[in-house]
Specification:
The protein is mainly beta.
Length: 276
C-alpha cells in the first residue's frame, strides 16, 4: 500500500535543536517548508494543550535512492558523408546517469503531533509578527498568500547519516564502415566508461529536529486551513497517495472580533487580517 509523503526533511547542514531551546516547535508558523528554522511567531507561539502522546521508535533506518539516466543513440550520418557515401555501421550509444543515495539511521525517533482546532488557528495568527507580515505590500495586495503551521515533528538521537552520489557516462557501439563487396567492416568497436563517486557521512549523538509536517494557512477572502505535502520527504501514516491538498476548514474572518477588512485589489473584494 502506497502512503502519502507527509513529513518534510529539515536542513542537516545546520542542525535544529529540539524545543524548547530550538527555534522550531509545534505551533510554529513558517514562510516556507524549505526554511523551517525561521518561524515568524517564535516570540509568541501559542502553546499546544491537546497534543497527541509522543511516539518513540528505536533502531530506525530509512534508505532513499534516486537515479536519473539519459540514453542517446547517435546514428552517425555525418560519418557516412565523410566516408564518401559508404554505409556506416550501426550506432553509437551514450548513456549518462546520476544516482543519489541517502541512508538515515537513528537510535531513537520521537514523534510529536497535534491537530489544530479552528480556535487555535484564530489565536495563532494574532501574533504581531504574523500581522506585520500580512500588512506588507507584497502580501496585502495579493489575491491570496500562504503560511505553514507546524503540526508534527520528528526528534532524533544517535544519528548516522550517509549521503552518496555517483555520476557515470558509458559509451559503446560500432562506428565502423561496412564494405559489402568485401563482406567486412573497417573501424573501431568498443566501450568507454567514466565514473565519479562522492560520499559524506555525518554522526551526531545529541537530539535534533529531523523532519516536520505542516498545514497550509491560506489567507484570502477567508482563512483556509489545508493539508499540504508538496515536496514532502517521508511517508508516514495511511493517507491516500493522491498528492492533492484537501480543504479541512474555513475560518471566516468576518466572525473574528479583532479582524480588519483589507481591500483585495486583484479580486475586487476584501480579505480579513486579525489584529494582535
Amino acid at each position: 500500500m502506497a502512503f502519502a509523503k507527509t513529513y518534510f526533511l529539515c536542513p542537516t547542514s545546520d542542525f535544529i535543536h529540539p524545543p524548547p531551546t530550538g527555534p522550531l516547535s509545534l505551533g510554529s508558523i513558517i514562510r516556507s517548508t524549505s526554511s523551517p528554522q525561521y518561524p515568524l511567531n517564535r516570540a509568541k507561539t501559542v502553546a499546544v494543550a491537546d497534543a497527541f502522546p509522543p511516539v518513540v521508535e528505536t533502531d530506525w533506518k530509512k534508505t532513499v535512492s534516486t537515479e536519473k539516466g539519459v540514453g542517446l543513440g547517435v546514428y552517425a550520418q555525418f560519418l557516412q558523408l565523410a566516408s564518401g557515401g559508404l554505409p556506416v555501421g550501426p550506432e553509437v550509444n551514450v548513456a549518462h546517469s546520476n544516482t543519489t543515495k541517502s541512508i538515515f539511521a537513528f537510535d531513537t525517533v520521537t514523534t510529536l503531533a497535534f491537530e489544530p482546532t479552528q480556535e487555535y488557528v484564530q489565536e495563532a495568527v494574532k501574533a504581531p509578527t504574523i500581522q506585520t507580515w500580512l500588512r506588507e505590500p507584497k502580501q496585502k495586495f495579493a489575491p491570496s498568500v500562504s503560511l505553514f503551521l507546524v503540526t508534527g515533528m520528528k526528534l532524533v538521537k544517535g544519528a548516522r547519516i550517509k549521503y552518496s552520489t555517483s555520476q557515470s557516462t558509458k559509451v559503446s557501439g560500432n562506428i565502423g564502415i561496412d564494405v559489402p563487396a568485401l563482406a567486412t567492416t573497417f573501424g573501431p568497436k568498443g566501450r568507454w566508461n567514466s565514473t565519479n563517486d562522492d560520499e559524506t557521512e555525518i554522526n551526531r549523538e545529541s537530539e535534533f529536529v529531523f523532519a516536520f509536517r505542516v498545514k497550509r494557512l491560506k489567507f484570502g477572502r477567508k482563512l483556509a486551513v489545508e493539508e499540504y505535502n508538496k515536496g514532502a520527504f517521508l511517508a508516514i501514516g495511511d493517507e491516500k497517495d493522491d498528492g492533492i491538498a484537501v480543504l479541512v476548514e474555513d475560518v471566516d474572518g468576518s466572525d473574528i472580533k479583532t479582524a480588519i477588512a483589507v481591500p483585495d485589489v486583484a479580486e475586487n473584494g476584501i480579505i480579513y487580517c486579525v489584529s494582535a
